[in-house]
Amino acid sequence: MAGETVRHSVIAGTWYPGSPPQLRRMIDGFVEKVPPVEIPGRLVALIAPHAGYIYSGSVAAHAYALVRGRTYDLVAIVSPVHRMWVGHIASTSADFYETPLGRVRVDHEAQDALDQEVHLQYVGQDNEHSLEIQLPFLQHLLAGEFALLPVMMGSQEWDTCETLARGLAKVLKGRNALLVASTDLSHFHSQLQAQRLDRVVVDKVNAFDPEGLARELASGKTEACGGGPVVATLLAARQLGATEARVLKYATSGDVTGDYSGVVGYMAAAIFAA
After folding, report:
1. Global pTM?
2. Which residues contact 196 (CB under 8 A, 6 or more apart)?
3. Percentage with pLDDT > 70 across the chain
4. Domains of the chain
5. Residues 6 or more apart from 76 whose CB is under 8 A from it?
6. CA nearest 240: which of 68, 39, 37, 43?
């Protein structure tokens, strides 16, 4: 329709395939290798990594395999911001996000409702990869179309996490919605040091302990570029009735490349109401 704006892909053809058939085949290849997992209850949220698919796609597939064939009216993706200033909490001003698999409509009503709670900063053609990279998995694996609530955290302080969590819970309550937190873990340590640092995040997520995770991140005892999105998503999921979290897969880039001298950690997890 005339006047509608599109946030075009900034990573198609580099971070993931730009060819739709190749992209679908890659996602299917990842998901087909994921062993069956039973989540004892209602799935509320996922945590997935955001590196290039060749590095972290096999880990992300452990989260997204859980939603294959499901339908959601709304998916809220919470990501960090890597290379631009967007204020404390931002969202797109565009009407659609576009990937090689098509366009995803931005739910402006949900945006407006969240804006009332957290005072969003609206941005145009952003270059944030960590939110976009989740979309092809959702587009390919979900049954039917879904609307998107994109959230980018320029601040990952505890107060921002708490505020965003309350806002997300209020906006998503009673809706057929899925929350997704986008994060990688430690960056460019040796494999052994990365595993030690990342174990802290894995343990805090498995314990469903966002407060403890926030403390460990603030103290420097662990690392996660999307630590704030994970904390906010855990807090929001709790307010939406979630009672448990489970890490489904952990790996590093070294497990793909064979270079263990400086790796990036990746984690997939599910948050659910048991």
Report:
1. 0.97
2. none
3. 99
4. 9-266 (3.40.830.10)
5. 110, 148, 149, 150, 151, 168, 171, 172, 177, 178, 179, 180
6. 43
